[in-house]
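re: ur question from the group chat, yeah i did fold both. here u go
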Amino acid sequence: MPLLQLEHVSKKFGQVVVADDINFELEEGEAVGIVGPNGAGKTSLFGIISGDVRLYGGQIHFVGQALERMHPSVRCRSGIGRTYQVPRPFENMTVFENTLVGSQQGAVLRGRKSHEAAFSALERTGLSSLANRAAGSLTLMQRKRLELARALATQPRLLLLDEIAGGLTDLEVTELTGIIRSINAEGVTILWIEHVVRALLSTVDRLLCLASGALVADGEPRAVLASEAVRRVYLGDRILNEAMDS
Protein backbone atom coordinates (compact mmCIF):
# COMPACT_ATOMS: atom_id res chain seq x y z
CA MET A 1 0.00 0.00 0.00
CA PRO A 2 1.42 3.44 -0.89
CA LEU A 3 1.95 5.85 1.98
CA LEU A 4 0.29 8.66 -0.01
CA GLN A 5 -1.92 8.33 -3.06
CA LEU A 6 -3.42 11.15 -5.13
CA GLU A 7 -6.08 10.24 -7.69
CA HIS A 8 -7.49 12.79 -10.16
CA VAL A 9 -6.85 15.64 -7.71
CA SER A 10 -8.24 18.94 -8.97
CA LYS A 11 -8.58 22.44 -7.54
CA LYS A 12 -9.70 25.83 -8.87
CA PHE A 13 -9.66 29.31 -7.38
CA GLY A 14 -12.39 30.91 -9.47
CA GLN A 15 -11.28 30.29 -13.05
CA VAL A 16 -7.65 29.68 -12.08
CA VAL A 17 -6.72 25.99 -12.12
CA VAL A 18 -4.03 25.13 -9.54
CA ALA A 19 -4.41 21.34 -9.67
CA ASP A 20 -5.43 19.68 -12.92
CA ASP A 21 -6.17 15.94 -12.62
CA ILE A 22 -3.01 15.11 -10.64
CA ASN A 23 -2.15 11.46 -10.04
CA PHE A 24 0.88 10.09 -8.19
CA GLU A 25 1.89 7.86 -5.29
CA LEU A 26 4.58 7.99 -2.62
CA GLU A 27 6.02 4.87 -1.06
CA GLU A 28 7.13 4.76 2.57
CA GLY A 29 10.68 6.10 2.94
CA GLU A 30 10.91 7.82 -0.45
CA ALA A 31 12.46 11.25 -0.96
CA VAL A 32 10.68 13.01 -3.83
CA GLY A 33 11.21 16.53 -5.14
CA ILE A 34 8.80 18.87 -6.90
CA VAL A 35 9.92 21.53 -9.37
CA GLY A 36 8.05 23.93 -11.60
CA PRO A 37 7.73 27.61 -12.44
CA ASN A 38 6.16 30.14 -10.09
CA GLY A 39 2.39 29.78 -10.14
CA ALA A 40 2.55 26.12 -11.14
CA GLY A 41 0.39 25.07 -8.17
CA LYS A 42 3.13 23.49 -6.05
CA THR A 43 2.29 25.16 -2.72
CA SER A 44 -1.44 24.77 -3.40
CA LEU A 45 -0.81 21.03 -3.78
CA PHE A 46 0.80 20.97 -0.34
CA GLY A 47 -2.22 22.82 1.02
CA ILE A 48 -4.51 20.21 -0.50
CA ILE A 49 -2.52 17.37 1.09
CA SER A 50 -2.23 19.03 4.53
CA GLY A 51 -5.84 20.25 4.53
CA ASP A 52 -5.19 24.00 4.37
CA VAL A 53 -6.82 24.08 0.91
CA ARG A 54 -10.12 22.34 0.24
CA LEU A 55 -10.10 19.72 -2.51
CA TYR A 56 -12.23 20.48 -5.59
CA GLY A 57 -12.25 16.99 -7.08
CA GLY A 58 -10.50 13.63 -6.79
CA GLN A 59 -9.28 11.60 -3.83
CA ILE A 60 -6.30 11.56 -1.47
CA HIS A 61 -5.39 8.57 0.67
CA PHE A 62 -2.76 8.52 3.42
CA VAL A 63 -1.92 5.08 4.83
CA GLY A 64 -5.13 3.88 3.22
CA GLN A 65 -7.32 6.54 4.87
CA ALA A 66 -9.31 9.01 2.79
CA LEU A 67 -8.28 12.57 3.66
CA GLU A 68 -10.91 14.63 1.86
CA ARG A 69 -13.11 15.22 4.92
CA MET A 70 -10.32 15.12 7.49
CA HIS A 71 -9.48 18.34 9.39
CA PRO A 72 -5.87 19.61 9.07
CA SER A 73 -5.21 18.93 12.76
CA VAL A 74 -6.29 15.31 12.34
CA ARG A 75 -4.06 14.95 9.27
CA CYS A 76 -1.15 16.26 11.33
CA ARG A 77 -1.84 13.78 14.14
CA SER A 78 -2.08 11.04 11.50
CA GLY A 79 1.51 11.76 10.45
CA ILE A 80 1.55 14.59 7.88
CA GLY A 81 3.91 17.42 8.85
CA ARG A 82 4.85 20.45 6.78
CA THR A 83 6.98 23.57 6.65
CA TYR A 84 6.11 26.89 5.02
CA GLN A 85 8.07 29.06 2.57
CA VAL A 86 8.39 31.94 5.03
CA PRO A 87 9.20 30.84 8.60
CA ARG A 88 6.93 32.53 11.12
CA PRO A 89 8.01 31.39 14.59
CA PHE A 90 6.41 32.68 17.77
CA GLU A 91 9.08 35.35 18.16
CA ASN A 92 8.54 36.09 21.85
CA MET A 93 8.84 32.41 22.76
CA THR A 94 12.08 30.45 23.02
CA VAL A 95 13.27 28.06 20.36
CA PHE A 96 12.39 25.14 22.65
CA GLU A 97 8.91 26.52 23.38
CA ASN A 98 8.26 26.88 19.64
CA THR A 99 9.16 23.25 19.10
CA LEU A 100 7.11 22.19 22.12
CA VAL A 101 4.05 23.63 20.36
CA GLY A 102 4.66 21.09 17.61
CA SER A 103 4.95 18.11 19.95
CA GLN A 104 1.99 19.12 22.13
CA GLN A 105 -0.43 20.50 19.54
CA GLY A 106 0.67 18.49 16.50
CA ALA A 107 1.58 15.11 17.99
CA VAL A 108 -0.70 15.63 21.03
CA LEU A 109 2.02 14.51 23.41
CA ARG A 110 1.99 15.53 27.06
CA GLY A 111 4.45 15.85 29.94
CA ARG A 112 7.87 14.28 29.59
CA LYS A 113 7.09 12.74 26.18
CA SER A 114 6.30 16.14 24.65
CA HIS A 115 9.54 17.62 26.03
CA GLU A 116 11.59 14.69 24.76
CA ALA A 117 10.06 14.95 21.28
CA ALA A 118 10.67 18.71 21.17
CA PHE A 119 14.30 18.43 22.26
CA SER A 120 14.92 15.52 19.88
CA ALA A 121 13.71 17.70 17.00
CA LEU A 122 16.13 20.44 18.04
CA GLU A 123 19.01 17.97 18.20
CA ARG A 124 18.20 16.57 14.75
CA THR A 125 18.24 20.07 13.26
CA GLY A 126 21.33 21.34 15.10
CA LEU A 127 19.45 23.81 17.29
CA SER A 128 19.80 22.26 20.76
CA SER A 129 22.41 24.86 21.80
CA LEU A 130 19.88 27.62 21.00
CA ALA A 131 16.97 26.05 22.89
CA ASN A 132 16.63 28.95 25.35
CA ARG A 133 17.14 31.75 22.83
CA ALA A 134 14.17 33.91 21.78
CA ALA A 135 13.02 32.80 18.33
CA GLY A 136 12.80 36.43 17.20
CA SER A 137 16.59 36.76 17.44
CA LEU A 138 17.38 33.93 15.00
CA THR A 139 19.10 34.31 11.63
CA LEU A 140 17.32 33.17 8.46
CA MET A 141 19.17 29.84 8.47
CA GLN A 142 18.29 29.28 12.12
CA ARG A 143 14.65 30.14 11.42
CA LYS A 144 14.61 27.63 8.57
CA ARG A 145 15.99 24.99 10.93
CA LEU A 146 13.39 25.91 13.55
CA GLU A 147 10.64 25.61 10.94
CA LEU A 148 11.94 22.13 10.20
CA ALA A 149 12.25 21.28 13.91
CA ARG A 150 8.65 22.34 14.61
CA ALA A 151 7.46 20.04 11.81
CA LEU A 152 9.61 17.16 13.09
CA ALA A 153 8.22 17.60 16.60
CA THR A 154 4.80 16.58 15.26
CA GLN A 155 6.41 13.16 14.58
CA PRO A 156 5.51 12.93 10.89
CA ARG A 157 5.65 9.89 8.65
CA LEU A 158 5.38 12.25 5.68
CA LEU A 159 7.21 15.59 5.73
CA LEU A 160 6.23 18.31 3.24
CA LEU A 161 9.07 20.81 2.71
CA ASP A 162 8.17 24.05 0.92
CA GLU A 163 11.25 25.86 -0.48
CA ILE A 164 13.15 25.41 2.75
CA ALA A 165 16.49 26.14 1.03
CA GLY A 166 15.34 29.45 -0.47
CA GLY A 167 17.44 32.49 0.45
CA LEU A 168 20.32 30.50 1.95
CA THR A 169 24.01 30.61 1.03
CA ASP A 170 25.65 27.67 -0.75
CA LEU A 171 27.20 26.47 2.51
CA GLU A 172 23.89 26.76 4.36
CA VAL A 173 22.13 24.82 1.59
CA THR A 174 24.73 22.06 1.88
CA GLU A 175 24.26 21.88 5.66
CA LEU A 176 20.48 21.84 5.35
CA THR A 177 20.41 19.11 2.71
CA GLY A 178 22.60 16.99 4.99
CA ILE A 179 19.99 17.34 7.74
CA ILE A 180 17.16 16.45 5.35
CA ARG A 181 19.02 13.39 4.07
CA SER A 182 19.52 12.19 7.65
CA ILE A 183 15.81 12.67 8.39
CA ASN A 184 14.93 10.62 5.33
CA ALA A 185 17.46 7.95 6.36
CA GLU A 186 15.57 7.63 9.65
CA GLY A 187 12.51 6.53 7.65
CA VAL A 188 10.59 9.80 7.24
CA THR A 189 9.13 10.15 3.74
CA ILE A 190 10.03 13.48 2.12
CA LEU A 191 8.08 15.49 -0.46
CA TRP A 192 10.10 18.65 -1.20
CA ILE A 193 9.23 21.69 -3.32
CA GLU A 194 12.41 23.56 -4.20
CA HIS A 195 13.87 26.03 -6.72
CA VAL A 196 17.43 25.27 -5.55
CA VAL A 197 17.70 22.35 -7.94
CA ARG A 198 21.13 21.17 -6.80
CA ALA A 199 19.71 20.63 -3.29
CA LEU A 200 17.11 18.28 -4.74
CA LEU A 201 19.62 16.45 -6.93
CA SER A 202 21.76 15.66 -3.87
CA THR A 203 18.79 14.40 -1.85
CA VAL A 204 15.80 12.99 -3.75
CA ASP A 205 15.32 9.68 -5.54
CA ARG A 206 12.56 10.94 -7.81
CA LEU A 207 11.39 14.24 -9.25
CA LEU A 208 7.97 15.57 -10.22
CA CYS A 209 7.42 18.67 -12.37
CA LEU A 210 4.25 20.74 -12.20
CA ALA A 211 3.19 23.41 -14.70
CA SER A 212 -0.15 25.24 -14.74
CA GLY A 213 -1.46 22.83 -12.14
CA ALA A 214 -0.68 19.74 -14.22
CA LEU A 215 1.90 17.02 -13.63
CA VAL A 216 4.15 17.09 -16.71
CA ALA A 217 6.94 14.73 -15.59
CA ASP A 218 7.65 12.07 -12.96
CA GLY A 219 10.84 10.04 -12.79
CA GLU A 220 14.58 9.89 -12.12
CA PRO A 221 15.68 13.46 -11.25
CA ARG A 222 18.27 14.10 -13.98
CA ALA A 223 16.13 12.42 -16.62
CA VAL A 224 13.18 14.63 -15.63
CA LEU A 225 15.28 17.80 -15.80
CA ALA A 226 16.69 16.78 -19.17
CA SER A 227 13.27 16.11 -20.68
CA GLU A 228 11.94 18.43 -23.35
CA ALA A 229 8.64 18.96 -21.52
CA VAL A 230 10.38 20.18 -18.38
CA ARG A 231 12.87 22.38 -20.24
CA ARG A 232 9.94 24.00 -22.00
CA VAL A 233 8.22 25.05 -18.76
CA TYR A 234 10.93 25.33 -16.13
CA LEU A 235 13.53 28.11 -16.09
CA GLY A 236 15.24 27.41 -19.44
CA ASP A 237 18.04 25.18 -20.65
CA ARG A 238 20.96 27.28 -19.37
CA ILE A 239 19.81 27.42 -15.76
CA LEU A 240 18.92 23.72 -15.70
CA ASN A 241 22.29 22.81 -17.16
CA GLU A 242 24.08 24.88 -14.49
CA ALA A 243 22.04 23.21 -11.74
CA MET A 244 22.71 19.72 -13.07
CA ASP A 245 26.46 20.38 -13.47
CA SER A 246 26.97 21.84 -9.98
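okk and heres the other one u asked abt
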Amino acid sequence: MLLPYLDANEIEAGCDEAGRGCLAGAVFAAAVILPKDFEHPLLNDSKQLTEKQRMLLRPIIENQATAWAVGIVTPKEIDEINILNASFLAMHRALDQLKTRPTSILVDGNRFKSYQNIAHHCIVKGDSKYLSIAAASVLAKTYRDDYMAKIGIEFPAFDWAQNKGYPTKKHRAIIAKEGANKYHRQSFRLLPVQEEKSD
Protein backbone atom coordinates (compact mmCIF):
# COMPACT_ATOMS: atom_id res chain seq x y z
CA MET A 1 0.00 0.00 0.00
CA LEU A 2 1.30 3.43 -0.96
CA LEU A 3 2.09 5.95 1.75
CA PRO A 4 0.16 9.25 1.96
CA TYR A 5 3.23 11.32 2.88
CA LEU A 6 6.82 11.29 4.10
CA ASP A 7 6.21 13.98 6.73
CA ALA A 8 2.70 14.95 7.87
CA ASN A 9 3.91 18.43 8.82
CA GLU A 10 5.09 19.35 5.32
CA ILE A 11 3.25 20.41 2.17
CA GLU A 12 4.70 17.75 -0.09
CA ALA A 13 4.77 17.86 -3.88
CA GLY A 14 5.39 14.53 -5.59
CA CYS A 15 7.35 14.76 -8.85
CA ASP A 16 7.90 12.28 -11.67
CA GLU A 17 8.74 12.38 -15.35
CA ALA A 18 7.77 10.43 -18.46
CA GLY A 19 9.59 9.88 -21.73
CA ARG A 20 13.17 10.09 -20.55
CA GLY A 21 14.26 6.98 -22.48
CA CYS A 22 12.43 7.80 -25.72
CA LEU A 23 14.08 8.60 -29.04
CA ALA A 24 11.42 11.12 -29.99
CA GLY A 25 9.20 13.72 -28.43
CA ALA A 26 9.35 16.02 -25.44
CA VAL A 27 9.97 14.87 -21.88
CA PHE A 28 7.05 15.56 -19.56
CA ALA A 29 7.01 15.89 -15.76
CA ALA A 30 4.24 16.45 -13.27
CA ALA A 31 4.14 17.86 -9.76
CA VAL A 32 1.21 16.96 -7.51
CA ILE A 33 0.24 18.04 -3.99
CA LEU A 34 -2.43 15.74 -2.56
CA PRO A 35 -4.59 16.24 0.53
CA LYS A 36 -3.22 14.26 3.49
CA ASP A 37 -6.33 12.06 3.52
CA PHE A 38 -6.33 11.32 -0.22
CA GLU A 39 -6.73 7.67 -1.12
CA HIS A 40 -7.76 5.67 -4.15
CA PRO A 41 -7.51 1.88 -4.44
CA LEU A 42 -6.31 2.01 -8.04
CA LEU A 43 -3.51 4.56 -7.69
CA ASN A 44 -0.08 3.01 -8.18
CA ASP A 45 3.10 3.49 -10.21
CA SER A 46 1.78 4.36 -13.71
CA LYS A 47 3.90 1.57 -15.23
CA GLN A 48 1.84 -0.95 -13.22
CA LEU A 49 -1.44 0.40 -14.60
CA THR A 50 -3.19 -0.10 -17.91
CA GLU A 51 -3.76 2.88 -20.20
CA LYS A 52 -7.46 2.71 -19.35
CA GLN A 53 -6.70 2.80 -15.59
CA ARG A 54 -4.37 5.78 -16.02
CA MET A 55 -6.99 7.72 -17.98
CA LEU A 56 -9.59 6.89 -15.33
CA LEU A 57 -7.29 8.19 -12.57
CA ARG A 58 -6.23 11.41 -14.29
CA PRO A 59 -9.44 13.43 -13.71
CA ILE A 60 -9.71 12.05 -10.16
CA ILE A 61 -6.19 13.28 -9.37
CA GLU A 62 -6.79 16.64 -11.05
CA ASN A 63 -10.09 17.20 -9.25
CA GLN A 64 -8.96 16.11 -5.80
CA ALA A 65 -5.37 17.36 -5.69
CA THR A 66 -4.59 20.48 -3.69
CA ALA A 67 -2.47 21.54 -6.67
CA TRP A 68 -1.05 19.92 -9.80
CA ALA A 69 0.85 20.96 -12.91
CA VAL A 70 2.68 19.49 -15.89
CA GLY A 71 6.02 20.71 -17.26
CA ILE A 72 7.38 20.07 -20.75
CA VAL A 73 10.89 20.21 -22.26
CA THR A 74 11.12 20.01 -26.05
CA PRO A 75 13.36 17.67 -28.09
CA LYS A 76 15.46 20.70 -29.15
CA GLU A 77 16.00 21.67 -25.51
CA ILE A 78 16.85 18.05 -24.64
CA ASP A 79 19.57 18.10 -27.31
CA GLU A 80 20.94 21.36 -25.92
CA ILE A 81 21.08 20.47 -22.20
CA ASN A 82 20.97 16.61 -22.19
CA ILE A 83 18.15 14.38 -21.01
CA LEU A 84 19.08 14.34 -17.31
CA ASN A 85 19.01 18.14 -17.07
CA ALA A 86 15.89 18.18 -19.24
CA SER A 87 14.15 15.87 -16.76
CA PHE A 88 15.06 18.22 -13.89
CA LEU A 89 13.93 21.24 -15.94
CA ALA A 90 10.57 19.61 -16.73
CA MET A 91 10.02 18.99 -13.00
CA HIS A 92 11.02 22.59 -12.20
CA ARG A 93 8.58 23.87 -14.82
CA ALA A 94 5.81 21.79 -13.26
CA LEU A 95 6.70 23.10 -9.78
CA ASP A 96 6.73 26.68 -11.14
CA GLN A 97 3.05 26.35 -12.04
CA LEU A 98 1.73 24.97 -8.74
CA LYS A 99 -0.92 27.20 -7.20
CA THR A 100 0.21 26.09 -3.72
CA ARG A 101 3.89 26.38 -2.79
CA PRO A 102 5.27 23.13 -1.38
CA THR A 103 7.59 23.01 1.61
CA SER A 104 9.03 19.65 0.56
CA ILE A 105 9.50 17.86 -2.77
CA LEU A 106 9.40 14.08 -3.18
CA VAL A 107 11.19 13.05 -6.37
CA ASP A 108 11.07 9.67 -8.06
CA GLY A 109 14.64 8.50 -8.65
CA ASN A 110 18.05 9.10 -7.14
CA ARG A 111 18.98 12.56 -8.48
CA PHE A 112 17.43 16.02 -8.56
CA LYS A 113 18.57 19.61 -8.98
CA SER A 114 17.55 21.80 -6.03
CA TYR A 115 14.49 23.94 -6.58
CA GLN A 116 14.15 27.38 -4.92
CA ASN A 117 15.81 26.21 -1.70
CA ILE A 118 12.88 23.88 -0.96
CA ALA A 119 13.94 20.65 0.74
CA HIS A 120 13.78 17.66 -1.58
CA HIS A 121 13.96 13.91 -1.09
CA CYS A 122 15.03 11.54 -3.86
CA ILE A 123 13.21 8.23 -3.51
CA VAL A 124 14.17 5.27 -5.70
CA LYS A 125 10.98 3.66 -7.02
CA GLY A 126 9.10 6.44 -5.26
CA ASP A 127 6.20 6.05 -7.66
CA SER A 128 5.45 2.69 -6.04
CA LYS A 129 5.93 4.05 -2.49
CA TYR A 130 4.20 7.44 -2.19
CA LEU A 131 0.77 8.49 -3.45
CA SER A 132 1.86 11.97 -4.57
CA ILE A 133 4.69 10.57 -6.73
CA ALA A 134 2.37 7.90 -8.16
CA ALA A 135 -0.15 10.63 -8.98
CA ALA A 136 2.59 12.65 -10.69
CA SER A 137 3.63 9.59 -12.68
CA VAL A 138 0.07 9.11 -13.92
CA LEU A 139 -0.26 12.75 -15.03
CA ALA A 140 3.16 12.88 -16.70
CA LYS A 141 2.53 9.61 -18.54
CA THR A 142 -1.01 10.39 -19.74
CA TYR A 143 -0.19 13.90 -20.89
CA ARG A 144 2.87 12.66 -22.76
CA ASP A 145 0.90 9.81 -24.35
CA ASP A 146 -1.70 12.31 -25.58
CA TYR A 147 1.08 14.47 -27.02
CA MET A 148 2.74 11.51 -28.80
CA ALA A 149 -0.59 10.50 -30.35
CA LYS A 150 -1.06 14.09 -31.55
CA ILE A 151 2.38 14.49 -33.15
CA GLY A 152 2.05 10.95 -34.51
CA ILE A 153 -0.72 12.17 -36.84
CA GLU A 154 1.93 14.31 -38.55
CA PHE A 155 4.25 11.32 -39.04
CA PRO A 156 1.95 8.26 -39.26
CA ALA A 157 4.69 5.87 -40.37
CA PHE A 158 6.20 5.96 -36.86
CA ASP A 159 3.01 4.74 -35.10
CA TRP A 160 3.72 6.94 -32.08
CA ALA A 161 0.19 6.53 -30.75
CA GLN A 162 1.25 2.96 -29.99
CA ASN A 163 4.99 2.92 -29.28
CA LYS A 164 5.21 6.46 -27.78
CA GLY A 165 8.70 7.00 -29.22
CA TYR A 166 10.56 4.30 -27.30
CA PRO A 167 13.69 2.73 -28.88
CA THR A 168 12.01 -0.43 -30.15
CA LYS A 169 13.39 -2.42 -33.10
CA LYS A 170 10.37 -1.32 -35.12
CA HIS A 171 10.92 2.37 -34.31
CA ARG A 172 14.59 2.15 -35.28
CA ALA A 173 13.71 0.28 -38.48
CA ILE A 174 11.33 3.09 -39.46
CA ILE A 175 14.03 5.71 -38.71
CA ALA A 176 16.44 3.75 -40.96
CA LYS A 177 13.84 3.74 -43.73
CA GLU A 178 12.17 7.16 -43.37
CA GLY A 179 14.95 9.14 -41.68
CA ALA A 180 14.65 11.07 -38.44
CA ASN A 181 12.23 14.00 -38.23
CA LYS A 182 11.94 17.21 -36.22
CA TYR A 183 10.62 15.40 -33.15
CA HIS A 184 13.60 13.04 -32.86
CA ARG A 185 16.25 13.76 -30.25
CA GLN A 186 19.38 14.22 -32.34
CA SER A 187 21.65 13.77 -29.31
CA PHE A 188 20.32 10.21 -28.85
CA ARG A 189 21.59 7.14 -30.68
CA LEU A 190 18.71 6.83 -33.11
CA LEU A 191 20.09 3.85 -35.01
CA PRO A 192 22.11 0.79 -34.00
CA VAL A 193 25.87 1.48 -33.96
CA GLN A 194 26.64 -0.23 -37.29
CA GLU A 195 24.14 2.00 -39.11
CA GLU A 196 25.13 5.18 -37.35
CA LYS A 197 27.06 7.85 -39.19
CA SER A 198 30.31 8.79 -37.48
CA ASP A 199 30.63 12.14 -35.73
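fwiw on the second one: The chain has one domain: 12-195. The chain is about 35% helix and 15% strand. idk if thats what u expected
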